[in-house]
From TrEMBL:
The keyword Oxidoreductase does not apply. This is Sodium:proton antiporter. InterPro entries: Cation/H_exchanger_TM (IPR006153), Na+/solute_symporter_sf (IPR038770), NAD(P)-bd_dom_sf (IPR036291). It is a multi-pass membrane protein. Keywords: Antiport, Cell membrane, Ion transport, Membrane, Transmembrane, Transmembrane helix, Transport. Residues 17-390 form the Cation/H+ exchanger transmembrane domain. Coiled coil: none annotated.
Length: 600
């Protein structure tokens, strides 16, 4: 503190960055490191005292930060995606939310002796999960694709739903607490808060969307326009009806997310970076405000709530959601076990808890510490145990097996069909809608976007993918895609078709090895050659080798024409045939190869 407040703020930003980086390196949610850092700097060492340093600006600033975080979360709630999800995910977001809310509320009332209204509010705050805590756990645990999909999409969509539920419950609680005349007066106060939040949120969202769609403001000002508008509407709503601002900004995000032809890419990029910064600062500052006495007071109830969540709430929620679904009992157990609470719970609790203390609500001082105790325990438990449990239940992926294929051209479609028949999920990534439409008609999974677009970066889930095949006709696109996805899959799992410059060996034109994937198939396997072979009647066949039909016998049988593409080992591991390398398949392996009509 002797260096000044400016140095302190700069130090917090830097420490937040280090926490985010460390979390990325060890594949754990950043929230753990941020909370530990805040508790260390605040209650333990006493170096960071937010109330003393920031004074009256602390909670207005926190409120504005929470507003931005909730708005950014609401931008992910697209109703079209909600309708298109599977039955399990839809039930998790409906029956699951309400069953979890009810069980946590009852458990909170019994374990902490909170009054029923505050226990119900605590239950609403802690129903949320969040992709920032789920994604690192999934990367570490590596569950199968069904489990990963359910948890990933639930975490994306439940944050805005939970935030909206928390705001409505909180507004009802405050309205009831502030109104002393009668129940009618309390109801009118609640209606005023909700009406102001809904009116300003919906009107502000549509107005902002109209301005963005009409390009009234130049593109480079769009992020600043949205930020200023969200903060202004939040402040205006709170001025007209206190505590209506959170509802307003959540609805602004939902409205913008579901309007058509709104240029949101730059806004989402800006808001995502800003949210990471705000989340880092908020967690450190809020954890630093905790009191060691209060922390010790909530440790027992916090652990009790964790047991209630893991033993009662989650199994019941998953049972409701997965009834009659394709999930087997092992998969349901792991889905129920992974139940971390994240950023929205902590940020929402911080602002709501301050207001509860301001109105002298019983036990209000324990609201925030209890939330943080549940967050830490619920993140730490699955982070340490999900991987061993997945292995014990035999629902883990030994190695990512799905294949990302660049382009949806005929060559890519033929290879994708053969790989899917062999048991490998494939996804064709292309921005040519005509080819995407043809692939979809053939029953192949597709993603309509340029391989290095903002759309692909934001919405393409690579969790289950272990390979990239660059099969585009445009060699430059394969090179760009390999550079983009090499950090995701590793150099040994990124492959592209060769081109004429590589065949000729001209160093002036040939792309250096560190900047491209490994060349697929034979040394002359260009897109043109593969396309010509398919046009001439060559087909991809899968053949199982055995003791009586060895690799040598296979070569002898197809000596009139074949091009080996892949080898699938007896352990169902994919091996790509590469230019300049030879693989000797063994008995029990399967060969995928292009076979000439005369050799079929």
């Amino acid at each position: 503190v002797s260096f000044g407040v400016a140095f302190l703020i700069a130090g917090l930003v830097f420490l937040g960055l280090l926490s985010q980086w460390l979390a990325w390196r060890v594949k754990l949610p950043a929230i753990l490191f941020l909370l530990v850092l805040g508790i260390l700097l605040g209650p333990i060492l006493g170096w960071l005292r937010p109330d003393k340093i920031f004074g009256l600006l602390l909670f207005p600033t926190i409120s504005l930060g929470v507003a931005i975080i909730l708005f950014e979360g609401a931008l992910s709630l697209r109703l079209s995606e909600l309708r298109g999800l599977g039955t399990v995910i839809q039930r998790l977001l409906s029956l699951g939310v309400f069953s979890t809310w009810a069980i946590i509320s009852v458990a909170t009332h019994w374990l902490t002796h909170f009054a029923w209204p505050m226990a119900i509010l605590f239950g609403a705050v802690t129903v949320v999960s969040g992709p920032t805590v789920i994604t690192p756990i999934l990367r570490s645990a590596r569950p199968n694709a069904k489990i990963a999909k359910v948890l990933h999409w639930e975490s994306i969509l439940i944050d805005p739903i939970g935030a909206l539920l928390s705001v409505i419950v909180f507004e009802a609680l405050v309205a009831n607490s502030a109104a002393t005349a009668s129940l009618g007066a309390a109801g009118l106060s609640f209606l005023r808060i909700v009406s102001v939040g809904v009116t300003l949120g919906v009107a502000g969202g549509f107005t902002l969307g109209w301005i963005l769609r009409r390009r009234v403001v130049p593109d480079y000002l769009h992020p600043l326009l949205v930020l200023a508008s969200v903060l202004m509407i939040f402040a205006l709503a709170d001025a007209l009806a206190k505590d209506s601002g959170l509802l307003a900004v959540t609805l602004i995000g939902m409205v913008l997310a579901n309007m058509r032809d709104i240029p949101l890419d730059n806004i989402l990029d800006f808001k995502e970076s800003l949210s990471i910064l705000l989340i880092s600062l908020l967690f450190i500052v809020l954890a630093a405000r905790l009191n060691l006495t209060e922390i010790r007071a909530v440790l027992g109830p916090g652990l009790g709530l964790l047991v209630a969540i893991q033993v009662l709430s989650q199994p019941i929620k998953v049972a409701f959601a997965s009834w009659g679904s394709e999930l087997n009992w092992r998969e349901r157990v792991l889905v129920a076990w992974i139940a971390p609470r994240g950023i929205v719970a902590a940020a929402t609790a911080a602002v709501l808890g301050q207001t509860l203390q301001a109105v002298h609500y019983p036990h209000a001082a324990l609201f925030v510490p209890l939330t943080f105790a549940v967050i830490i325990a619920s993140v730490l438990l699955p982070s340490l145990t999900a991987r061993p449990l997945a292995r014990l239940l035999h629902v883990d992926e030994k190695e990512p097996q799905s294949i990302l294929i660049i382009s949806a051209n005929p060559v890519a479609q033929a290879i994708a069909k053969a790989l899917e028949q062999a048991g490998f999920a494939c996804l064709l990534l292309d921005n040519d809608f005509a080819q995407i439409r043809t692939a979809r008609a053939a029953g192949i999974n597709t993603f309509y976007a340029h391989p290095v677009s903002v759309q692909a970066d934001r919405y393409l889930d690579l969790l289950d993918f272990g390979y990239m095949l660059g099969l585009a006709e445009d060699h430059a696109l394969n090179i760009i895609a390999s550079m983009r996805y090499k950090p995701e899959f590793g150099l040994d799992h990124v492959f592209i078709l060769t081109d004429e410059s590589a065949i000729a060996g001209r160093d002036r034109q040939q792309v250096a090895a560190p900047y491209r994937g490994r060349y697929l198939f034979g040394g002359d396997a260009t897109y043109v050659r593969l396309s010509q072979l398919l046009d001439n009647g060559w087909q991809i066949h899968t053949t199982l080798l055995s003791e009586s039909f060895s690799w040598e016998a296979y070569q002898e049988k197809h000596r009139s024409g074949f091009l080996p593409l892949f080898v699938i080992t007896g352990e169902h591991i994919l091996r790509v045939m590469l230019a300049g390398e030879s693989i000797v398949p063994a008995s029990g392996d399967r060969i995928l190869a292009l076979i000439a009509p005369s050799a079929a």
